[in-house]
Amino acid sequence: xxxxxxxxxxxxxxxxxxxxxxxxxxxxxxxxxxxxxxxxxxxxxxxxxxxxxxxxxxxxxxxxxxxxxxxxxxxxxxxx
Amino acid sequence: xxxxxxxxxxxxxxxxxxxxxxxxxxxxxxxxxxxxxxxxxxxxxxxxxxxxxxxxxxxxxxxxxxxxxxxxxxxxxxxxxxxxxxxxxxxxxxxxxxxxxxxxxxxxxxxxxxxxxxxxxxxxxxxxxxxxxxxxxxxxxxxx
Lengths: 80, 144
Known about the structure:
- The complex is a heterodimer.
- By secondary structure, chain A is α+β, with helices and mostly antiparallel strands.
- Chain A has helices at residues 10-16, 30-40, and strands at 2-8, 20-25, 51-54, 57-59, 70-74.
- Chain A is globular, with a radius of gyration of 12 Å.
- In chain B, the strands form two sheets. In chain B, strands 3, 4, 6, 8 and 9 form a five-stranded antiparallel beta sheet that branches. A four-stranded mixed beta sheet of chain B has the order 1-5-7-2, with helices on both faces.
């Protein structure tokens, strides 16, 4: 089990009603972690078009998770 | 000169342009993104940008560096707004100066296209109907 910090942005933050969560998780990847989070926050939808960063670096959904990681869930971006 | 910033206050275009002045450059291309009064059939009244600043600035600088490398331009800068914006406010500005115009046009286009795709920035539009929506995120969350 890893201890991770999760941060939600924009539509994800509004859907979950929280900005950050501290979690103990068996998830092996950001994709698994997102699915876990979506089970607890049923307004959180598919991550297929979303982006993920770990410790302020863009990441893949199947990257490994390590103890102490901060995982950032970004909904589809819309700058400019 | 190269820079990328996020600011919660109005963008000063004169000050921005001065950063890119360079006696060795014969071309300056600037792109401004403005707040528009409509999107996908909805009348837009104002909008709000949420920006995750640490990564937006880092990724913005990375894009500026890529443009300088790829197109060989001399100077490239960008500023993106955060917070609440009204119609016709400047949401984003990109400026590029180089000895000749072709590279300046190409680099400017590259920077704004990459900024839109890669920066952790989210836009919420407020409509005349009273509704508000996160752009590109119709399937991110159930409605309340």
